[in-house]
Specification:
Length: 299
């Protein structure tokens, strides 16, 4: 049922279609979700409330939605979530709270989300996360924490997401990445660290604990000048899966050590749009036998 862009300002009408599985209420003017607002929709699986003006919920606002699999609350005015708001969401698999001024979120909000696989917390003004926040979300595979206010990687929180495969952490205020930044994220396969305006340096063994990492994006970081030659130490051992894709486009890198990566194992390597010092020390990149190499700036 598509009720998007209908200038709806309140959920004060009867929603009692037992067969409805999809409800789109996005791009309206809804400001609050009252108690039992969706009580007549007990088969609902997909609910989109994005781009409204929601600032408050009754704690029982989602009562009766035990079968919900996907909930989009992005682009509202949420700054507070009642403790029991998501209590019935045992079956929820996808949740977006992006583009809300939350600042803080607590472990209790995810306590019963044992089937959650995809979570978007981007642009929510977060600067810290509780250490055990994802300890009950054992199936969480995708997490977006980009465009927030983190000054360090919330590693204890990330480690509590035991199945995490894809992390977006772009547009945060990190200055340095070191060997503690991503420690023991053993299941992570894709890592995005783009457009981090404060990032200056990647130190020794910064990515060494990412035993299953396959793709790293670290581009458009306008102050990133240094990546230590041992930043990827251990990732190219025979016993570990290959780090196949590395994207370092549009940073401020002037040189890279030839021992930093194993050319024979990388499938895609993008180093374009960096202010390279094109001397003999950089010739190794042109000689790399990589399937897709993007190094047009290197002469």
């Amino acid at each position: 049922m598509d009720l998007s862009s209908n200038n709806i300002s309140a959920l004060d009408f009867e929603l009692s279609h037992n067969s409805v599985e999809v409800l789109d209420l996005s791009h309206n003017r809804i400001s609050t979700v009252v108690q039992n607002a969706f009580g007549g929709l007990n088969k609902l699986k997909y609910l989109n409330l994005a781009t409204n003006a929601i600032k408050s919920f009754d704690e029982n606002g989602f009562y009766g939605l035990e079968h919900l699999k996907s909930l989009n609350l992005s682009s509202n005015g949420l700054y507070f979530l009642p403790d029991g708001l998501f209590y019935n969401f045992i079956g929820l698999q996808e949740l977006s709270l992006a583009d809300n001024p939350l600042v803080h979120i607590d472990s209790i909000h995810f306590n019963r989300m044992i089937n959650l696989r995809w979570l978007d917390l981007s642009n929510t003004d977060l600067y810290t996360l509780p250490a055990n926040i994802f300890h009950t979300t054992g199936q969480l595979e995708f997490l977006d924490l980009s465009a927030n206010e983190f000054h360090e990687v919330p590693i204890d929180a990330l480690r509590s997401a035991r199945s995490l495969q894809h992390l977006r952490f772009s547009e945060n205020s990190i200055e340095v990445l070191d060997k503690k930044s991503f420690r023991k994220l053993l299941t992570l396969q894709v890592l995005e660290l783009n457009s981090m305006d404060h990032l200056k340096e990647v130190k020794e063994e910064a990515f060494s604990d990412l035993a299953n990492l396959q793709s790293l994006e670290m581009k458009f970081n306008r102050h990133l000048t240094t990546i230590d030659r041992k930043a990827f130490d251990g990732l190219f051992n025979e016993s570990r899966p290959t780090l196949q894709e590395i994207d370092l486009e549009a940073n401020q890198l002037r040189t890279l050590d030839k021992d930093m990566i194993a050319c024979a194992r990388v499938r895609k390597f993008n180093v374009q749009r960096n202010p390279w010092v094109c001397d003999c020390s950089m010739k190794w990149i042109k000689k790399c036998e990589i399937q897709k190499i993007y190094a047009a700036d290197l002469k």
